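DM between two lab members

TW: hey, do you still have the Dimethylmenaquinone methyltransferase entry open?
JB: yeah, one sec
JB: this one, 211 aa:
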Amino acid sequence: MSVYDSQTVAARAKVLGSSTLYEACGLPTAVDPAIRPIWRGAFIAAPAYPLECSPGDNLALHLALERAPKGSVLVVSTGNFIAGYWGEVLTVAAQAAGLVGLVIDGGVRDIQAIETLGFPVFARGVSVKGTIKATAPSVGQPMAFNGAHVAEGDWVVADDDGIVIIPQGEVARTLTAGLARFDKEARLMAALREGHTTVELMGLKRQEEAQ
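TW: and the structure you got?
JB:
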């Protein structure tokens, strides 16, 4: 991470947001947009701890709660199988373990309780169906995750716009580029308020001129 410590990364990621960071990074960092916050305003900016659950089996999650470093966000692959892998009990356990969020391509339940606890969760769906605890295919190992790649220590930024996973070695560059993009857009919007147009400012051609 070199230039930025974890607190600085999180603070700047919150200001910039997932969309700006995606554009600034220039890498395939975007996660499937069908994975959404289960309560509006949920936000995550933290190092990833990846794991894989078998369909309908949440044993890997229980193991991860013992192994993941404090300050991590769990990034969970289920093969897109919707079931209630996560609920109020695991949320309380995660908070006690110092974890800061969950991104899962499966389902969760106990939505009202999770929101009341203020724990940010991004999921593909909601399901009342419980899970078994029998197998744990992968805990803490790198994996492909719904359009992106994730390894322990990569940075997850998730908000109402979506989710990006930025490789650990690209975080400093991405934040620097993101801040430059943010400043450029601020100047653009200031000019728009002064009466300029996007066609003018962006050097766009009107349809009749392009023909």
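TW: got it. Residues 62 and 90 are 8 Å apart (CA to CA). DSSP finds seven helices and eleven strands in the chain.
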